[in-house]
Amino acid sequence: MTVVSTLPADTRLDLPPLQLGDITVKTPVVLAPMAGITNTAFRRLCREYGGGLYVSEMVTSRALVERNPESLRIISHDDDEAVRSVQLYGVDPVTVGAAVRILVEEDRADHIDLNFGCPVPKVTRKGGGAALPWKLDLFTGIVQTAVREASKGDIPLTIKMRKGIDEDHLTFREAGKIARDSGVAAVALHGRTASQFYSGKADWNAIAELREALPDIPVLGNGDIWSAEDAIRMVRQTGVDGVVIGRGCQGRPWLFGDLMNAFEGDSTRHQPGLGQVADTVYRHAELLVDTFGNEMMALRDIRKHMAWYFKGYVVGGELRAKLAAVPTLEVLRELLAELDAESPYPGADAEGPRGRAGSPKKTSLPQDWLSSRALNDAQQADISAAEVDVSGG
Length: 393
Ligand SMILES: Cc1cc2nc3c(=O)[nH]c(=O)nc-3n(C[C@H](O)[C@H](O)[C@H](O)COP(=O)(O)O)c2cc1C
Description:
Layout: E1 2-4, E2 18-20, E3 23-25, E4 29-31, H1 40-47, E5 53-60, H2 61-65, H3 69-74, E6 85-89, H4 93-105, E7 111-116, H5 121-124, H6 136-151, E8 157-166, E9 169-170, H7 172-182, E10 186-193, H8 204-213, E11 219-222, H9 228-238, E12 242-245, H10 255-263, E13 268-270, H11 274-292, H12 295-303, H13 306-309, H14 317-323, H15 329-337, H16 377-383
Parallel strand pairs: 4-5, 4-12, 5-6, 6-7, 7-8, 8-10, 10-11, 11-12
Antiparallel strand pairs: 1-13, 2-3, 8-9
Helix pairs in contact: 1-11, 4-6, 6-7, 9-10, 11-12, 11-15
The structure holds flavin mononucleotide.
Flavin mononucleotide binds at residues 32-37, 57-58, 87, 115, 117, 160, 190, 202, 222-225, 245-248, 355-356, 392-393.
């Protein structure tokens, strides 16, 4: 499965461990929270390849406070997860504070991240997600409350955000400073605005700018890291203290092995043949059965990973279609057996962008949202609805 690449020696990188409060993350790499992806099954697959911090899927603070069973599943961790990392989404300081208190008092997390990056219209339309940092009073209230509650258990709290709403309404500079002054352990920046969704290119210059503006806390860079070489480029170009990996590891949990190697100055890279990919898919499906405790749900979930796993590999169209509709573990086993296990790693075709892209679109916002950096009464009333039925960022 592994090969030694012929990279020039200067693509090697040595970065110190990432320090988040009392937590030392030896390899400064973070699995980005991804709703519907970064459950216990996927986190296990990823961390088996390398070091790093592996964040759960996002949970809304209200659902957690209401002890919704799905939210309790989302924040659960395997016994051998050394750092139990949970991402919270919330729009109101009181509820976010209560959710952090639950995590701290019930010893359910070792690290908490707050999500301020969701670009989805149904969220931003109510002033939530990436629209929220525009309102400085609300953003400050949420972060300060969360840090205060987390500090009672010595739990490091971080935030993850986008550049802003659009290029004319950037928020990352003030939000980064407010977060730093509130005592967060680190700030992660996805170098896109909400209106970009996942399209175009992440702006690594904004990440470099934030790194420079906040010399006293770790700044993590996020966006468009598809390979260990991309991570090296980002660190070199921006000076970040660590990298956050989202779509690049979809269908490629071994990317965390490559990243660990890169950060340890080892040029070995994983280049699995089709047989090894098939084995990983099957193991992923089995782990999902454990996660959901239900084969039907697990198999429904694995379907969305198929195109990512087999990107660039020699797999016929008909077989791809069957894999994308696989109903049971038994059928999955049969379908995977039809693949040519000897088929080699296809090279560049298996690399590069994958997953969500979308196209740029004007961000939906509450009325008069942009006219002031403070909340008015109508917006205050509206925003409490922003937390209902949210998933993803
Ligand atoms: C399917 C999917 C789900 C996501 N869910 C979340 C989430 O729950 N919380 C969050 O902060 N970001 C979420 N994101 C955004 C990612 O964490 C990350 O910021 C983004 O994908 C950019 O990084 P990348 O270019 O490495 O993919 C999600 C992204 C995708 C593709």
